[in-house]
Design brief:
Blueprint: H1 9-13, E1 24-25, H2 27-30, E2 50-51
Length: 81
């Protein structure tokens, strides 16, 4: 098991418990019973993720989604609290 992904300043300011956007989803994540703390909590062999807002592989800001992408530096990011 690797270390949990670090929170940046914006995520800390809003009280997020994980750096990932609340709208980030994947099959692996939806089968979990707890909050994702690492990229591997989202990624299975397919590495396919989607945004629950747009229901596609692009977020509301028209950029790709994924654990490495859906972080607090994006304008569409929403914290998991």
């Amino acid at each position: 098991m690797s270390n949990p992904a670090p929170l940046d300043d914006r995520a800390n300011e809003v009280g997020a418990i994980t750096p990932y956007c609340a709208s980030l989803a994947s099959k692996k994540y939806l089968l979990r019973a707890k909050v994702a703390l690492e990229d591997s909590d989202y990624l299975d062999a397919s590495c396919h993720c989607w945004c629950q807002k747009t229901r596609s592989a692009l977020g509301p800001d028209r950029d790709v989604v994924g654990p490495a992408d859906c972080r607090s530096d994006r304008t569409c990011w929403e914290p998991i609290r």
